[in-house]
Amino acid sequence: MNKTDFLALEGNIRETMDAYYKGQKQDYINSLYNVIKKSVGQYTDYTIGAPGRMTDWTGDVHYDSFAGGYEVQYRAEKKSTGLQIPADMWDDGEFEAIKTRVNNTLYGVQKTLNYDSAYVFNHATDSTLTGPDSSPLIGATHYTIPGADAQSNLFSGVLCDYEGLETIQLGMEAWTDDKGDDMLIDGNFVIAGRQQRKNLQKLFGSEREAYVTDNTLNVDKDMEYFIHPLIRGKRFFVANKELMKGGSGLNWFMRKDPRNFVRDGATAAGDFNTEMISWKSVGRYKIGWTNWFFIAMGTGE
Length: 301
Known about the structure:
With 301 residues, the chain is an alpha/beta fold. It has eight helices and twelve strands. The chain has helices at residues 3-11, 13-23, 28-32, 87-91, 95-122, 162-174, 197-204, 241-244; strands spanning 34-36, 42-48, 68-75, 77-86, 154-155, 189-192, 224-227, 236-239, 250-256, 262-263, 276-289, 295-298. Strands 1, 4, 9, 10 and 11 form a five-stranded mixed sheet that branches. A five-stranded mixed sheet has the order 5-12-8-6-7. Helix 2 (13-23) packs across helix 5.
């Protein structure tokens, strides 16, 4: 690789990032998150109570009212990485070695995003990671609005099988809003880690039920599932995909995408005192959720 080729590569560094991104089996961020791009450092989202049912006509219109819910702040957090090489490497034309170092650093950027995309699932029950109702994503004391009855989206001891799936789906349908009405949340999307990969392939990949000796039709054969290999353990999540990615579910506020690698200055002279040439990648983003009732979790054991 000569200097001209390297500069062409550096000028289209996004193509290098895309190569790493597309080289993965899955797009972990866009498959699981509603990606929000706003030109502000933070923004506020709100929850509200549920609408009531219609009432019988009594001569005039019955006007409904909504109870106030919770407020949640999405404030972008900054992360960075960088690379420095001696200016001598540039002067000596070691562009192939420079490209390798740049590419390795770019891989580190994508790796960070992969791990961050799994973090909320791996820490779903941690009290240090909470949502607007002061409960973790998965917990026994969730509230639709302040003062409402506590509800749970944690299914302890529930296995990842047909019976376990039905248990969670029935539980999600039975969650109630602040008016006391069943919410009828449709659990139509299963998320799990690699320990459940083969199991989910068997459960949902055939016209007939798995693990049985007869030819029972598999009513769950069209269930959509997603394997994130960085989700740890046997835990599995059942979500309503439309609510999860609809804006009030699982959100990734991408203020500044870190998949952009830039060199310090327009020349290759490097720092005047240290003669080091620098590249950097800086990102600003925040992961969170507004409402909790798009998802439930079975412990899988």
